[in-house]
Amino acid sequence: QVQLVESGGGLVQPGGSLRLSCAASGSIFSINVMGWDRQAPGKQRELVAGITSGGSTNYADSVKGRFTISRDNAKNTVLLQMNSLKPEDTAVYHCNADGVLTTASAFRSWGQGTQVTVSS
Question: How buried is 110 (Cβ within 10 angstroms: 0-12 exposed, 13-18 middle, 19+ buried)?
């Protein structure tokens, strides 16, 4: 019922930047929280950043000061600006959303993921 479509991943050199975006669609009444997590081969899944409808944000310690999350509530879109990228940031990044459908039921959805590779 809710689809999340991510874009913006790619290959970048250390110290470079990328901007990820994720748009939610479907019978959505409201979205409470949107965010990003990531997973690299051989590593556990990690919460990267989240943002509430009111604009409150949280970040993993490993990305604080380098990544910035933002959202456009009207478009049900979340952005992740990634600066000063490190090889350790290489992973598949997934967006997620938590909210309420037009049927008044709660939902939680994840995107299919977008690859971010940081390498020289």
Answer: middle
Give the whole-angstrom CA distance, residue 63 versus residue 119: 17
Main-chain phi, psi angles of 88, to 5 degrees: -65, -15
What does the pLDDT look like over 16-33, one tens digit per residue? 999 999 999 999 999 999
Residue 79, number of CB atoms within 10 A of its CB: 18
DSSP state of 120: -
Amino acid at 36: W
b/e string for 6-34 if b means 16 or more Cβ within 10 A?
bebbeebeeeeebebbbbbeeebeebebb
How confident is the model over 56-93, as pLDDT tens digits?
A: 999 999 999 999 999 987 889 999 999 999 999 999 99
Residue 93 tokens read as 């990044």
Query: Could you tell me which residues come within 8 angstroms of residue 12 by beta carbon, excluding any fewer than 6 positions away?
Result: 18, 85, 116, 117, 118
Type of residue found at 32: N
